[in-house]
């Protein structure tokens, strides 16, 4: 039995030993594998972490790159604008200079219809050139140039009319007794000119384009109507986007050939505080564009005397000579208002070569009335002394009341000139 | 963007002359010469909605005869433009025109001598 059991036991022992050995080895392997696995997992986690980090870095780099790209683009755009602006500024100056030269020539050679017609054609071309230059200047953040004096709304409309090619198709209707303040004169004229250019370009040749001037409670409207085909919804949306005050306009996005009418209008309107809209339909079927000039940009101040005065004064050596004379003549004519107020127009009076014209009752008129007419044009007549030599006659003697009332009138006049909201009565009556 | 102070000043005229004429052809210089005198016809009403220039001419000419050159000078417009506006008003019957007074004729020397002689005979 033992013998029989002996080898079996041994065999079992051996098997058991082998099994134990195998188990031990397997365990060892298992442990090793586990460790490996843990290591690998750790490594993987580390790598994953690294990947995430890299991802973040990549993202930040991407962001930085796009930011830098945008900045570079912006810089490039700004540089382009700066260069264009500087170049165009020269052109603007030259156009203005040329305009002055042409004007002088027109006055000098005005007697010859042939020459005058040619000069007018040059003037017309130059005006359009000037408007284009102004448009580019505005898009580049530049300025239009500043006018020193106010201009009546009617004249602003006519000035705009003169800056487009087909000015003869434009009709200006309606006049209001308002002027545009000097700083807004050019902007409104340029915007109106752009709208007129659109209106004439996108309507059949020969059809009229109308500007209607209307006073509204918040200001004055300039309504441009054309008889074209109108605009589609897409065009209207684009126009509205360009005209909105927030519109960001880049010079490169205006297409070739650049269509910058609306962009210019939008920028100027936002900068100077008036409104432009093109979303309505004109009664003639085309587009109705409306410029609303608010009260802040309007004044009741009458436009200054003849526009010719400025260049003339610049030429003549003694520009001051005329003005005091005029005042003096006025003062003298006021000294005998009873005579003149009743004088009929072409009175066959024996002595005066140039009979005095009927005059309004100057005592009740503000001073502005004295040198200009209701239409804002100079009231200069031949009867005023022509000589530039100051009169040696003693000033007419006035009573105290007369002096007081004249001073009062002067004060009222200057106040009403400075004050746009008319303060009638109470204070001054 | 530049400050408003850096703005250039615009000095050219505001309303162009071809806008005032409406792009029409200009009349001949012979039609209304520089020295032709014009004045308002009596009892005329100004046209409805006159342009500022027409209004100014109306007021200038209501004071008596004025030459074409003077009207243009007062308006600050080229003569050709003023001429066109005056011609319009004339054609509408608002303006009277008259040729410039002829320059004074020189008196014949012989007559002067005879008068001198006569005076000398009588008083001399």
TrEMBL record, chain B:
InterPro entries: DUF742
Domain of life: Bacteria
Protein name as annotated: DUF742 domain-containing protein
Lineage: Bacteria, Bacillati, Actinomycetota, Actinomycetes, Kitasatosporales
């Amino acid at each position: 039995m033992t013998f029989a059991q002996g080898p079996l036991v041994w065999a079992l022992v051996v098997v058991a030993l082998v099994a134990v050995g195998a188990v031990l080895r397997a365990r060892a392997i298992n442990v090793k594998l586990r460790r490996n696995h843990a290591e690998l997992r750790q490594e993987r986690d580390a790598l994953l972490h690294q990947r995430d980090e890299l991802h973040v870095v990549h993202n930040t780099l991407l962001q930085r790159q796009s930011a830098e790209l945008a900045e570079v683009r912006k810089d490039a755009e700004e540089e382009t604008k700066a260069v264009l602006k500087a170049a165009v500024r020269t052109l603007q100056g030259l156009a203005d200079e040329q305009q002055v030269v042409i004007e002088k020539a027109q006055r000098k050679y005005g007697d010859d219809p042939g020459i005058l017609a040619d000069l007018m054609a040059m003037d017309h071309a130059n005006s359009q050139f000037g408007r284009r230059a102004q448009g580019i200047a505005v898009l580049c953040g530049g300025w239009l140039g500043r006018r020193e004096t106010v201009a009546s709304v009617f004249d602003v409309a006519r000035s705009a009319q003169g800056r487009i090619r087909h000015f003869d198709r434009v009709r200006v209707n309606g006049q209001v007794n308002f002027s545009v303040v000097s700083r807004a004169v050019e902007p409104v004229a340029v915007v109106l000119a752009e709208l007129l250019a659109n209106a004439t370009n996108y309507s059949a040749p020969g059809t009229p384009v109308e500007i209607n001037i209307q006073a509204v409670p918040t200001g004055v409207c300039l309504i441009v109507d054309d008889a074209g085909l109108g605009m589609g919804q897409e065009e209207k949306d684009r126009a509205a986007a360009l005209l909105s005050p927030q519109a960001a306009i880049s010079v490169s996005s205006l297409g070739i050939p650049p269509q910058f009418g609306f962009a210019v209008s939008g920028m100027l309107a936002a900068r100077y505080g008036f409104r432009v809209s093109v979303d309505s339909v004109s009664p003639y079927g085309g587009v109705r564009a409306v410029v609303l000039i608010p009260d802040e940009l309007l004044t009741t101040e009458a436009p200054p005397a003849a526009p010719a005065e400025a260049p003339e004064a610049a030429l003549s050596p003694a520009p001051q000579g005329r003005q005091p004379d005029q005042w003096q003549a006025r003062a003298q004519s006021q000294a005998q208002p009873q005579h003149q107020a009743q004088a009929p127009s072409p009175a066959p009076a024996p002595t005066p070569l140039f009979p005095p014209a009927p005059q309004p009752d100057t005592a009740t008129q503000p001073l502005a009335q004295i040198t200009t007419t209701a239409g804002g044009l100079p009231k200069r007549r031949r009867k005023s002394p022509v000589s530039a030599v100051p009169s040696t006659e003693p000033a007419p003697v006035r009573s105290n009341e007369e002096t007081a009332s004249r001073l009062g009138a002067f004060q009222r006049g200057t106040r009403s000139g400075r004050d746009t909201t008319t303060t009638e009565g109470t204070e001054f009556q | 963007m530049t400050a408003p102070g850096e703005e250039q000043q615009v000095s050219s005229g505001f309303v162009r002359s071809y806008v005032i004429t409406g792009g029409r052809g200009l009349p001949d210089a012979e039609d209304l010469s520089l020295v032709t005198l014009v004045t308002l016809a009596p009892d005329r009403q100004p046209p409805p909605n006159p342009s500022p220039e027409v209004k100014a001419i109306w007021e200038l000419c209501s004071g008596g005869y004025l030459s074409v050159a003077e009207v243009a000078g007062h308006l600050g417009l080229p003569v050709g433009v003023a001429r066109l506006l005056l011609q319009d008003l004339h054609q509408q019957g608002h303006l009277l025109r008259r040729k410039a007074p002829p320059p004074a004729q020189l008196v014949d020397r012989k007559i002067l001598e005879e008068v001198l002689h006569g005076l000398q005979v009588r008083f001399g």
